[in-house]
Amino acid sequence: MSAVSASPAPRHEPLRNDWTRGEVRALFELPFPELLHRAASVHRENFDPAEVQVSTLLSVKTGGCPEDCGYCPQAARYHTGVDATKLMSTEAVVEKARQAKAAGASRFCMGAAWRSPKDRDIPKVAAMIREVKALGLETCATLGMLSGEQAGALREAGLDYYNHNLDTAPEFYNEIIHTREFQDRLDTLGHVRDAGMKTCCGGIVGMGESREQRAGLLQTLANLPAHPDSVPINRLVQVEGTPLAGTVELDPFEFVRTIAAARILMPRSMVRLSAGREAMSDELQALCFLAGANSIFYGEKLLTTGNPDTERDMALFQRLGLRPMQIHEQGDNTHGSTVHADIVEAHAIDGQARPCAA
Ligand code: SF4
After folding, report:
1. HSE, side-chain direction, 13 A CA sphere, residue 162
2. What pTM did the predictor assign?
3. Under CATH, which number does the domain 43-355 receive?
4. What does the pLDDT read at residue 339?
5. Which one of 38, 69, 201, 277 is the catalytic residue?
6. How much of the chain, in percent, has pLDDT values that exceed 70?
7. Ligand 1: distance of its center to the CA of 188 in Å?
8. Parallel, antiparallel, or unpaired: how do β-strands 51-55 and 203-205 relate?
9. pLDDT tens-place string over residues 161-173
């Protein structure tokens, strides 16, 4: 019998930041139908389960990254065929933002493959943020590690959200990344919170970690000083040329368990399917929605009309009776839009979402 005995929390029950590893492990070990029932119950106590947020991201600077994240095709040291680009001009970014708005987005996320922005980059990104904001869009960014001053400057420019992932469990971190420490991630998240921005923070599963380590990732996320507003749960996209190519694929049911546990631990966060979703069957995605996922990632596809993948998503929504999330308040958080651009930790390369924890 599981050590987790609590039935689903009633609406507006205070959020917990004191989950033990044993409690999280026990969630993973529940019989699959019981875990899904609990997660679905928590989901509907906090959200309309028929609504799914739709998110997109513009990669404003792709590839050439000095970090060594084992999953990432944008790391300069791996030969993945990704060409490094320079930072896009503000004009080009604003044009993409206009397109996103015309497609119905209310929020626009800009991602750059940097270890951290240089101080000289901040005014350029700040200009993008100001101009995107002037279009009437919410703004978000994922730029790598930030100092307190940089976070303050981005907030000052009007940045609403910042994405920065924990990647994996603290005890598995050094198996995947050697060019920074887990504590660096926590420090940046602290700077983002201190600057008054909302956080988007999750990780990647299927990188060879154990169930215990998946529990460790979720435990760390749920015990942050504030639950992230958005929690992207990525399924590794194996890219030829990266160290993690050829890794044994994660059991799809284990992925659903991870989604369900995230929903229970962080009841009022948006739990997002992002990188790796394109390779999932419709049935697996449906199970994820049942388990409490309520946000999906489109990459830059939203900016391309008539995209077959986008049409597949809309057809799936229709078959499942789901609809894009509308603007409404969720507790302290403002979520949603008709079609919505948001923070993700993925870059769209060659039309496919690639995980990036920048
Ligand atoms: S995940 Fe981000 S930080 Fe890591 S190598 Fe890729 S672009 Fe760089």
Report:
1. 30
2. 0.88
3. 3.20.20.70
4. 45
5. 69
6. 85
7. 15
8. unpaired
9. 999 999 999 999 9
Question: Which helix (H) or strand (E) segment is 109 a member of?
Answer: strand 107-112
How far the first Cα of the chain sits from its last, in Å, is 40
Determine the residue type at 337: S
Which amino acid is present at 307? Answer: N
Between CA 49 and CA 41 the distance in angstroms is 10
Tokens of 256: 């659903």
Distance 326 CA to ligand 1 centre (A): 32
* C-alpha to C-alpha distance for 288 and 316, rounded to whole angstroms: 13
Q: How far apart are CA 67 and CA 75, in angstroms?
A: 6
Q: Is 272 annotated as a binding residue?
A: yes
Alpha carbon separation from 340 to 30, 57, 299, 300, 344 (Å, rounded): 34, 10, 11, 12, 12
**Rounded CA separation 34/32 (Å):** 5
Query: Which atom of ligand 1 lies closest to the CA of 355?
Result: 1
Task: Please give the structure tokens belonging to residue 101.
Answer: 């708005």
Low-confidence spans in the chain with pLDDT less than 50? 1-9, 304-305, 327-355, 357-358
Contact partners, residue 93, CB within 8 Å, separation at least 6: 58, 60, 110, 128, 131, 132
Q: Check if 65 has its Cβ closer than 6 Å to any atom of ligand 1.
A: yes
Whole-number Å distance, alpha carbon 319 to ligand 1 midpoint, is 36
Residue that has been written with the tokens 């990632």 in this structure:
297
DSSP states of 102-143: HTT-SEEEEEE--SS--GGGHHHHHHHHHHHHHTT-EEEEE-
| Measured distance CA(195)–CA(284) in Å, rounded | 38
* Contact (Cβ atoms closer than 8 angstroms) between residue 222 and residue 265: yes
Q: Is 356 a catalytic residue?
A: no
Reduced 3-state DSSP string for 182-221: HHHHHHHHHHHHHCCCEEECCEEECCCCCHHHHHHHHHHH
Give the CA distances from residue 153 to residues 61, 120, 130, in Å, rounded to whole numbers and listed in that order. 19, 12, 11
Please tell me the residue having the least CA distance from ligand 1 atom 2.
358
> Is the CB of 325 within 6 Å of ligand 1?
no
**83 by DSSP, 3-state: which?**
coil
Write the Ramachandran bin of 292: left for phi over 0, alpha for psi from -120 to 50, otherwise beta.
left
Rg (CA), the chain: 19
Instruction: Report the alpha-carbon distance of residue 261 to residue 215 in Å, rounded.
Output: 8
